[in-house]
Amino acid sequence: MPDLFVFPNKVLFGRGAIHELESQLSKLNVSRPLFVTDAGLIKNGLASTIHQGLKKEGMDGPIFDGSDENPTEENVLAGLEIYEKEKCDGIIGFGGGSSLDAAKGIRVKLTHPLPLAEYAIGAGGWDKLVNPMPPMAAVPTTAGTGSEVGRGALIIVRPSGAKIAIAGEHLFPSFSLCDPELTINLPPFLTAGTGMDALTHCIEEYLSPKYNPLVDGMVLEGIRRGREAIVRAYEDGNDLKARGEMMIAAMIGGIGFSKGLGVVHSLSHPIGSVIGGHHGTINAILLPAALEFNFNHSLDRFLALADALGVKPLSQSDEASGQAVIAFIRELNQKLKIPENLSVYGAKRDQISPMLPMCMADHCHKTNPRPCTEEDFQQLLEAHIPE
Questions:
Q1: Measured in whole angstroms, how far is the alpha carbon of residue 68 from the centre of its chain?
Q2: Could you give the CA distance from residue 53 to residue 46 in angstroms, rounded to a whole number?
Q3: Beta bridge partner(s), residue 176
């Protein structure tokens, strides 16, 4: 069976790209888009400014700002109700990955009647997402999830409470506008968390044993661009070049989802469902231990990571170079003030047990270089949740 390489993304990138929003929507015959965002972007005025600009151009669509930090099926259904009531004809996802994924969830439900859980990857959802969907613009205001160029969405569904991945070819945004200026006001802790999300995507994709040399080359470039830019953007939020580099790294990570992720995400998805917290920050917390877990199963890949991170002196042994990758990530977390464990989100040991079946059911560990057992997940969770 042949391997599948898919890159059908339309992206307008660069300073001022946001000014193309109305013209690109018009090309798709969208005149009344549902503007999906979050309450924080309404409060700081960024979303309202863009929405008002669209109204001046005659695109007087409603706003839905009810997306949670980890979007839920309830969020999606609430947005769907507004879309249908207001007779919208397209969708704008504006914000971080949560808003973009909520927008994608609404898009799914507009033309697919089953509960969202039926469209999960693990439920054969890929083959059920067959109906065309309304046009969608993806406008990220963070540099992390890569949802703006991905064909999937992460949604917490009921009644299980599990965070599932919904993916299909129709879920690619119709176009994406990636404007680094939109990330200027991102506070340092979100710059850190979203940036580490992007780096985690690139690292896990490179370690995935799935064959895709095109993605391999791209994600190594994403790591090279992100390794220094993330610190510069964190220390100086107005560094537009660093912001742009992080948006590139995030897009590369999003394009690379087709190669699969790994153990970090099979842990962070249940953590987001049961405990809560910022997805990218959770990934950052878990990444060093996950690299330790995988180290002996992909040393050759660690050597390439060491080179991409700039920590591979010629005098070092292969094992030392590989270990330098783990040390680099730990030091990077410290520079970015990433918490050391999940206690920052109020995690308790008694929450581990309900997460274990979610970890095992999550599709991401199927492309981890080392097979994962329930005992492995338990040990990794216990290492990050103090007694």
A1: 15
A2: 11
A3: 11, 138
Q: Give residue 199's Cα distance to chain centre.
A: 10
127-159 in b/e burial notation, b at 16+ Cβ within 10 A? Answer: ebbeeebbbbbbbbbbbbbbbbbbbbbbbbbee
Angle at 383 between CA 382 and CA 386, to 5 degrees: 70
Q: What interhelical angle do 374-384 and 352-361 show, nearest 10?
A: 130
Q: Residue 27's pLDDT is what?
A: 97
Cis preceding linkage at 159, omega within 30? yes
Strand order through the sheet with 90-95: 11-13, 175-178, 136-140, 90-95, 33-36, 63-64
> pTM of the full predicted structure?
0.94
Instruction: Count how many Cα atoms sit within 13 Å of the Cα of residue 378 in the half-sphere of its side chain.
Output: 8
pLDDT, residue 57, reads: 87
Amino acid occupying residue 323: Q
Q: Is the pLDDT of residue 315 over 80?
A: no
Q: What are phi and psi of 64, to 5 degrees?
A: -120, 115
Q: Which two tokens stand for residue 33?
A: 């888009």
**Tokens in use for 277?**
């917290």
Per the CB < 8 A criterion, the answer to whether 158 and 120 are in contact is no
Through-space distance between the first and last CA atoms of the chain, rounded to whole angstroms: 48
| Three-class SS of 200-254 | HHHHHHHHCCCCCHHHHHHHHHHHHHHHHHHHHHHHCCCCHHHHHHHHHHHHHHH
Residue type, 289: A
Q: What is the pLDDT of residues 112-164, one digit of tens each?
A: 999 999 999 888 988 999 999 999 999 999 999 999 999 999 999 988 888 99
59 phi, psi to nearest 5 deg: -100, 85
As a whole number, mean pLDDT of residues 108-115 equals 96
pLDDT (tens digit, 9 = 90+) per residue, 27-76?
999 999 999 999 999 999 999 999 999 998 889 899 999 988 889 999 99
Cβ of 303: how many Cβ atoms within 10 Å? 18
The answer to whether 106 touches 83, Cβ cutoff 8 Å, is: yes
The secondary element (H helix, E strand) that includes residue 355 is helix 352-361
Amino acid letter, residue 348? K
- How big is the CA angle at 270 (ends 266 and 274), to the nearest 5 degrees? 165
**Beta carbons of 234 and 240 less than 8 angstroms apart:** no
Supply 89's token pair: 């004809």
The H or E element containing residue 137 is strand 136-140
**3-state DSSP assignment of residue 356:** helix
